[in-house]
Specification:
The structure is a single chain. By secondary structure, this protein is of the alpha/beta class. It is 31% helix and 19% strand. It has nine helices and ten strands. A six-stranded mixed β-sheet has the order 1-2-10-7-8-9. α3 links the parallel β4 and β5. α1 packs across α5. The relative contact order is 0.17. It binds pyridoxal-5'-phosphate.
Length: 292
Amino acid sequence: MQLSFDQITIDPVYLFEERNIKLSILRLDKIHPVISGNKWFKLKYYLQEAKNSGKKMIVTFGGAWSNHIVAAAAACGEYDLSSAGIIRGEEPSLLSPTLMQAKDYGMQLHFISREEYKDNSIPAALGREDYYLINEGGYGPLGAQGAEEITDYVKDDFTHYCCAVGTGTMMAGLINRTRPTQQVIGISVLRNNFQLEQEVAALVHNKYHLWKIIHEYHFGGYAKHSAALIEFMNDFYKQTSIPTDFVYTGKLFFAVSELIKDNFFPAGSKLLVVHSGGLQGNRSLEKGTLIY
Ligand SMILES: *Cc1c(COP(=O)(O)O)cnc(C)c1O
């Protein structure tokens, strides 16, 4: 598997010049078409710790279209670890392309009911193994530590970082590495997940930094979408040639555009929006929905 960290660029987008807002996009989506942007960063230190503690296998959780599951499967291959994915819901007769790919990377898949999934229950089949557990989405201090390294690819000075928020791990990593004069704005892709502030704060160690999570752009909830979101993503692609995914980065760019129009950012702001990848998830949309 070829990961192309040297392909990461910062692309300027000239859509908001009139409002005196400079917008640049950190293209973590260019690392790999499937192993999406932030997941590799978040997994790195977990896998190192698993190796260092002599574990041979990792176990983690996700849904049928999970970027985290497929990235974990691929990354374990690179680290010479075996992997098991605990997948939410009944086993379908036909696996999603995401799960097929995870399987191709060598991951064993275990399907559990939504109720069992809520309790993070580990299937009996895995009970005897000496495995290393990684939280869903890589939430935790080591995930945030890995996400800090996203900022290594940023040389210019920005007033704000903007990112999509699922578990908040990436956002915490960004907060930990930015300077106190820089603000980190997170767009939650979950509906009314007001525990997020606490979960991010638990991973942040510079307590005086300015950050804010915005909860108004979930489009109905996790992996939900509307015609307006899809239209925005297609328009954004026409204008910038940058593809986004409907679960995370589409909502992020939509939100940032709206916030700019609402004068949320002071004139003269320089925004860095993190394109955290996730494009593989668009495969769950009906063909023809997106123009790319
Ligand atoms: C997982 C993911 C996120 C969310 O990252 P968290 O650290 O869980 O907040 C954002 N964007 C994409 C594309 C993702 O796959």
